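User: For a benchmark we're assembling, each entry needs the component sequences followed by a predicted structure for the full assembly. Here are entry 17's components. Please fill in the structure.
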Amino acid sequence: MSTQTIQKSDFIEACIAAGGDAAPLPKLREEAAAAARALGLPHTKLEEWRNTSVRVLSETEFDHRPSAAAPSGILRSLPMQDAEIRLVFVNGRLDEALSSVPRDLSGAYVGLLRNAPESVQERLLSVYGTVADWRTLHFVALNTACAAECAVLWVPTRAALARPVHIIHLGVSSGKPAASHPRLLCMLDEAAEATVVETFAVPGDQVAFLNSVTEIKVAADARLFHSRLQLGSEKALHISSLQANCADRAKVEQTTFTYGGALVRNDTGSVLDGEAAETTLNALYIARNEQHVDNHTTLDHAKPNCPSFEMYKGIVDDKASAVFRGRIIVRPDAQKTDSKQSNMNLILSDDAVINSKPQLEIFADDVRCTHGATIGRIDDEPLFYLRSRGIDAKAARHLLTFAFASEVLDAIQPEQLKNELEALIFARFAAGDTLPSSDDLHS
Amino acid sequence: MNMLEIKDLHVSVEEKEILRGLSLSVKAGEVHAIMGPNGSGKSTLAQVLAGRDDYEVTSGSVSYEGEDLLELDPEERACRGLFLAFQYPVQIPGISNSYFLKAALNAQKKYRGEPELDAFEFSALLKQKAKLVEIDEALLHRAVNEGFSGGEKKRNEIFQMAVLEPKLCVLDETDSGLDIDALKIVARGVNQMRSPERAIIVVTHYQRLLEYIVPDFVHVLVDGRIAKSGGKELALELEQKGYADFERAAASV
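Assistant: Structure for entry 17:
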């Protein structure tokens, strides 16, 4: 190892030293900082990190107090850029000029935790840090210690936010790579409904580190659609932890779309903590060159009669690599659990590497859990079928690659996001082909 | 000139010879039925014509409109007017039937140097052809063959054929899995496409389809060769006597 290497603890210390002062709960912050110090950075000898090295974090000199402004026009490059309800964070700080929060939100609150109305703030603070586990998860601890701000979406009982909420986190570097720790808390009271899109983007081919935590607390009968988009620079470092907690009959449909990033690690989980609660975790990850995408998911069935669905799909090209670890826990109490998991990978090159591992831990006896994983290339049968109709081999391959992705996209809310992502993927795979435009896909 | 001229065709799959010296001439305007027992090589012939590369042509030739068909990629064959209605059409989740057809039609038109259809013209064409094979327009907007019943899949093949208007249609056991009503609809669609410029090869195990698509010629394919050729009455003879006599004759060669 070179003598230039910065000590591991230096990275953690530098993050903590630069941590924002506006974040709530100073005591929690201190405890989390202690946890982050004690945990250090994970290494590949840990089972959870066996396939993903984060050494780059200790070997890179980051700018922990980045002050760069958002490049002009950056929003225009993002899907859902015109969402009327929109919070834009640049390196963890709210950019009010780029943000937009209309007055009438059906009683809901979208904004910074520290600006939330007092009565709501108290409740939000009682949830903050209780959904995602900062005591044992390295990067949740670090985020909890360092987050400069916390974005909040709160929807009161029986209210429905008809319009989607877009929370945009930009990592923008000028000089040294920027490091930031975006945080979002979504809290839906009983029978409330909302659709949230959370975008993490790094412009151009910049290096920036985004260590995000999203906590989702959904009360009885509430329903949340959440999409997480990881876009932009293929040199970015995305570490993202998302944890949901669902009460009775609550429903969370979460989709992760990974497109940018040299190193991407997503820890995504939901506790089905009420009877007949339901969670869907879907993902589409598209990687090329030397991108590395690691998805660790946990569906924790704590109560009876809960269905969960999980569909993770990847398209991996060149020397890129992808990891999927899908953990399903069925607690002794969680009878009549119905859980379906699938991980399907399409590899487009000889050098792509896929590592897929289901992990079922079942402690109840009357349950149904199915899982399946596939790793393969484009099938010959549909390829021949398309060619036999006059579509050339290259275009046929591209169309089938797109078709593989579309199953995940179909579940995405809102429709506009689905269409924009579809166009993005279509352009990635079918640009230059003699195929009808993606606008015709639904004609 | 014959549109299709197959001469002494030998084809193997994984070292096993399936077609063993098949010859066949087809002119524009003609409808040929190729009948034969299971394993006689009927579907192999259909697949080889369409260009599937799991089959190895060991000797013989196939010329289509005076050119060596075997030299062409499957997409080039399609663009030059060859169409195979699949015995087992594959489903393609994520691509709508209508998008698929637009991609195919425009690819063919581009290849032939013809102007592509705009959205309006294409939509009108689909509606018109959907009527022809009595296919529910809702199926046009569903993913290709996904969740289609057996009958819907076969009808969808004929629908595609109607939209693409090929010169040479090869129907591979299009009757299998169809009830009598669906069979009649499919046959009606095919009959409407009969024209002096177009040739149709119907590959089938049973005579039943030929009651509705009446062929000009019937060929009995046994053990990779055409054992007998005749008119439409040959199909009736087969219906009564079965393939046993032909199989015995072939075995004794």
